């Protein structure tokens, strides 16, 4: 039994690591697509794409994943990709928005619906949960190795055109109007290394996931994250600090 238990624990840790890696690759794929769509697929002439490709390399992202993101942006082979947003409720009723980029709406809709159903959630109609989110520019600067206090960072963010900032032990989170995100990003990256710079849906009032639903909820997010069609997952949910 002890051997079985050890094997089970190793498999569990590996599953968690794979899920975390999947979320990282998902984020990089989305950024690669957006950078290539905006400035072309040649990294020599697209500094933002070159930056995202460097991040992909640092994360050991497979070249096939990188190429798939670039192919989506360029429409290689005549494929036409559509952006679709799904809205639903996770286990416990927490709001979840799923942004997809797909060349087959039926395939993607079926996969998203299956993930929600499989993990005790449900898809909702368009507009059913969108009101619980605000669209904002979102910039993250990590504090590790950064000798800057909160007041200095706040002043720099406001001078760059940001609307607000939230500081925690490990990061500064800076919020902007969506239309100002690029200008704020450009101003701040002259002084700092940015971990994240994107426009995303920010929840108004995150709600706690019931303790007996946490496993189901994280299973839902992990399954959605593993789908290559999914670009973003926005959650109006609060989980305990020890749950990723």
TrEMBL record:
GO terms, molecular function: DNA binding
Ranges for domain TACO1/YebC-like second and third: 81-235
A family per Pfam: Transcrip_reg
Family indicated by similarity: Belongs to the TACO1 family.
Region Disordered, annotated ranges: 1-21
Upper lineage: Bacteria, Bacillati, Bacillota, Bacilli, Lactobacillales
Compartments where located: Cytoplasm
Protein name in the entry: Probable transcriptional regulatory protein R4146_04505
UniProt keyword list: Cytoplasm, DNA-binding, Transcription, Transcription regulation
NCBIfam families hit by this protein: PRK00110.1, PRK12378.1, YebC/PmpR family DNA-binding transcriptional regulator
Domain of life: Bacteria
InterPro entries: Integrase-like_N, TACO1_YebC-like_2nd/3rd_dom, TACO1_YebC_N, Transcrip_reg_TACO1-like, Transcrip_reg_TACO1-like_dom3, YebC-like
UniProt key word Acyltransferase: no
Domain TACO1/YebC-like N-terminal span(s) in chain numbering: 5-75
UniProt keyword annotation of DNA-binding present: yes
HAMAP family, per the entry: Transcrip_reg_TACO1
């Amino acid at each position: 039994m002890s051997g079985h238990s050890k094997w089970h624990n190793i498999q569990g840790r590996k599953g968690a690591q794979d899920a975390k890696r999947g979320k990282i690759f998902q984020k990089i794929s989305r950024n690669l697509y957006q950078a290539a769509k905006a400035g072309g697929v040649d990294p020599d002439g697209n500094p933002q794409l070159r930056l995202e490709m460097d991040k992909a390399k640092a994360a050991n992202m497979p070249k096939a994943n990188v190429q798939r993101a670039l192919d989506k942006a360029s429409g290689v082979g005549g494929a036409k990709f559509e952006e679709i947003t799904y809205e639903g409720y996770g286990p416990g009723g927490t709001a979840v928005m799923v942004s997809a980029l797909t060349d087959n709406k039926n395939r993607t809709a079926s996969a998203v619906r299956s993930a929600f159903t499989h993990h005790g959630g449900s898809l909702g109609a368009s507009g059913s949960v969108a009101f619980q989110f605000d669209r904002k520019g979102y910039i993250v600067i990590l504090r590790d190795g950064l000798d800057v206090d909160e007041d200095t960072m706040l002043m720099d963010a406001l001078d760059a055109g940001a609307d607000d900032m939230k500081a925690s032990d490990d990061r500064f989170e800076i919020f902007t109007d969506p239309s100002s995100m690029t200008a704020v990003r450009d101003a701040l990256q002259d002084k700092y290394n940015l971990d994240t710079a994107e426009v995303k849906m920010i929840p108004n009032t995150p709600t706690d996931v019931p303790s007996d639903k946490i496993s189901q909820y994280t299973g839902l997010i992990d399954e959605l994250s593993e789908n290559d069609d999914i670009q973003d997952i926005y959650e109006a949910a609060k989980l305990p600090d020890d749950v990723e």
